[in-house]
Fold each of these.
Amino acid sequence: MSIRTDLAVESVGNITDGITQTYRGKSFRVTDITIHSDKSGRQIGRKKGRYITLEGDGFNRISKDFRSMCIEFAKELSPLISDGSVLVAGLGNSDITPDALGPKAVSQILATRHLKQELKDEDEFLTGLRSVSTVAGGVLGQTGIETAELIRAVAQKTKPSCIIAIDALACSDINRLGKTIQFSDTGISPGSGVQNKRHELSESSLGVPVIAVGIPTVVDMHTIVGSYTHAPVNRSLPNMMVTPRDIDKLIEKASAMLAAGINMALHPQLDFEEIEAIMC
């Protein structure tokens, strides 16, 4: 049975030809998947590149594990980020709760690009932070502008060394909803998990490396039925995307986790407590 998922860890299965997997982690169960060729990627519907999945037990900000989870996420993400300025893009529709992860997370990212211009030599510490800019431009139905077009225009102006694109994902296992972070160096096609695929954001389309970061917030109903019955699903029957009933709380917690980890990865001179104080 074919499944609809954005998670490479769910697509790989038992396929090993041209694909390597390594495992590690403390606060998370970390699966590091590398697809070595385009041919290997076509077997599972993924582009050649690296996909890192962090699986936890939820992202409760008041949990005693929240600090260690943020630190581990930042540690895993940091090697993928190029030196120099970074553009962080929040993808998705802020008016639809399961799709609001990107805009919600990017609103908590520490933007610093303007500090060098505004402060100049007044504050050496602040002007010494990495140059970071953010954008959350909504979706095509709201603006009439493709997300890729908007981000390309901003990137041409700000000239980042890489782009971090945050988006809500789809998964096939309900146990991964709101409990799994995936990031990759292959870019992203917004909306692909819910069959609303838009223009891709990738190094080939934007001219700079694109790191895609996301957390699954929806699962396909046909996939759920197939997983539980282990029988073919009649695809002619009505389908829908299912999301947890407490999705508003999930988005709040998940966006805080992503923002804290990304902020720490971008500004390693700031510790967790300093980052959290800035975000609050």
Amino acid sequence: MTRLILLNGAPAVGKSTLARRYAEDHPFAFRLDIDQIRRMLGRWREDPNRAGVLARSLAFAAAGAHLESGHDVVVPQLAVRIEFIERLAAIAAEADAEFHEVFLLDEGANIVRRFAERTELAADPTHVDAHETLAEGNAGLLAYVDRFAALVPQRPDAVSIECVPGDIDATYQRLLEVLGDR
């Protein structure tokens, strides 16, 4: 059965890395990165909020189409709005696909450190974008961590994974276990 997997977590927790790994290991799985879609919109920086709404709309359509083709979709996205999560679940149901809501958890200090490291490396343009659009620096980042932490108890059907700092392989194995892959 096809799957729509939401990897939800604070910035820099490893969502995109795990999604990339999952797509590499599962033929034709679609790593649907909404931040990448947003970057494809012309002049998106002039109105990042509107660009985000448009990117999510495009992502919903793409997810549905890909699930209908019989292939998995993995969405690495910080999602604190329940409506977004419920829309993904509905898309999965419409395509007769499983919906997996996975929370990636880590301590705030680790997230702040990784956010700074990835911004400094600038290996992925979306990481630079995230740094540029984050208001209030580390305080803003920790506010996201707090908003995310407040969401977790509201989602009883979601599965939480404690990230293993510095060990993406171990964290990925935990993901596969909760998905029933191994």
Amino acid sequence: MRYNRKIILEDGQEYYGYSFGHITEKVCEVVFNTSMVGYQEIISDPSYTYQAVVMTYPLIGNYGMNYDDYETKVPTIGALIVREYNDEPSNYRSTATLSEIMKKYKIPGVSGVDTRKLTRSIRDHGSRKALITSASTPVHKGLEILKANDIPTNAVSVVSCGETWVSAAETEKYHVVAIDCGMKMNIVRSLNRRGCKVTVVPWDTDAGYIERLNPDGILISNGPGDPEHVPQTIATVKSLIGKYPIFGICLGHQIISLAYGAKTYKMKFGHHGANHPVRNLETNKIEITSQNHSYAVDTESLAGTALTVTHINLLDHTVEGVKCEKDKVFAVQYHPESAPGPNDSAYLFDCFVNLMQGEKDNA
């Protein structure tokens, strides 16, 4: 069987493969993910908007797709690149194949790719623009397309909810307002399980509207792209600091850091996977975490702010968590709700609940 698809990187590298999912030509930023399982949660994670994800685990599609494990209603991942795709899944929960769902949501896939070589290239030279196209497309033509097409920077506005909605808890003890920058559903589920009614608001909601909702706490969600491209959210967080307990996750961690005056930067190839070791500096314990981000908080820029570092990454020593005890604000760069990944950090939702309960007790 002859190759019918090709990936052209902006430096001219070519990787051939076979089509699955939706067949289309597309420009994305190429990144790699080291998770062995969890491809349903990965393709439905809004943080992957405009990104082509290379799966380092070689066999993808084995257990199909089901109704329950989506992290958003409409997946917005750019593309999926795999070594081997299995179109005959075996799992009692499976309701469709991965390719069928990718066709439904117009997500292109390429299989048969030398993903080890491509991953090493991303590791050594960084994330780059990539064109997913026909195998017959000449390199020079592909490079022209890449040069003419920039990856959009307004990804948060694309994936955030368009209007306020509410997720009720079985027993409602607390009211959390979540600013949706591309929030994964397991964050909402994690809060609901702890007795939190969650009111989800769009990314550009102003502080006054949030205050009128009378929350017990504020959550700033994960999401795609550069945190500096959401100045409205940063301004809202600045206005809310000190008024309510605030918890930030992933992009929310970066937004909170910017609100306090720190800086962020784009990483060479980011953190994407479910096996990143993080040290909790307060307990000296190691947590294995799920991560998905291409930007990080500049460690040196935190000096002079009210934030202190609470967690660091053991692989590259980047900042993984910050807090301001006085303001009852804390945030982590990784995903305590996992999906996919381990549950080592689920206790952070309990920390958030404890802050809200403390405010109630002192009222």
